[in-house]
Amino acid sequence: MTAGYNTLLKSPQWFEKRKIILARDNNKCRCCSGTNSLNVHHRQYHVSKRTGNFQLPWKYHQKYLITLCEKCHKAGHAKFKIPTFTIS
Question: Is the pTM above the cut of 0.90?
Fold first, then answer.
């Protein structure tokens, strides 16, 4: 992921998608049920076969997004590598 990706996570499109995922998950971490410092985590990343670019963060299907508190999010990134898949 690049610094540009972090900029995309500040866009109105991402805030709207994030709001949808938080509501779906009842504004709770799916690991510990915490309600503070919630993040929406991408379970996997998709890269376009044609362009080599990562898919825009808000373009992911909801099944690839999950609500995690900051603590669980950091622990998950430390323990697991997020898989990256090439898509058409």
Answer: no
